[in-house]
Known about the structure:
The chain is 42% helix and 15% strand. It has 214 residues and is an alpha+beta fold. Helix 1 packs antiparallel against helix 2, helix 4 packs across helix 6 and helix 5 packs across helix 6.
Amino acid sequence: MKYAFIHKHVGQASIRVQCEVYGVSRIGYYAWRRRQDHPSRRQFARYRLDQLVAEAFAARKGRSGSVGLTLDLDELGHKYNRKTVAASMKRQGLVAKAAKKYKATTDSDHNLPVAPNHLGQDFSAQAPNQKWVCDITYLWTGEGWLYLAVVLDLFSRMVVGWAMDKRMKAKLVCDALQMALWRRKMPRGVMVHSDRGSHSIAQSSIRPSWPSTT
């Protein structure tokens, strides 16, 4: 650090005076300069490692620690052990962001009636609009957590309805089912399957206008 400081202020004070002030030799300073102008193989390897780690860290948006980055680098053909990657992260001041708190997407703790399971784990379909499945996931956005409800046609595996909201209520799935109904021109006889959370409550609430649901 002293040599770097001296080099930075060469135009303001002579090297001899600065070396005397900071208690270092001019020979040591010039040897340091040669190393900077002609980095050793080890220094170049460290520089390359830091560059790769920084790029991998940025690609993961700062959410991966040394374990994840080591796996990422390995997939790219760069073989480093975890401790080496961790040392590079520490050297560069790279600290992984804390994981966002898990958000539950199934509310099964209720006493409301749910429809029986007629699907029986048979997720095959021979034609469109025979079997639809519903599910809810969550997304972290600039506005916070948003819940996404989707309706999937098992024949084509195509999403036929969806809805998003800040709260996971039965209306969320109802809106997704209503979209699916309108997009598929109000089909009848469709088997609709979900787990036994609020999805099932939503199906019960929409059933009067849609026969043959489960």
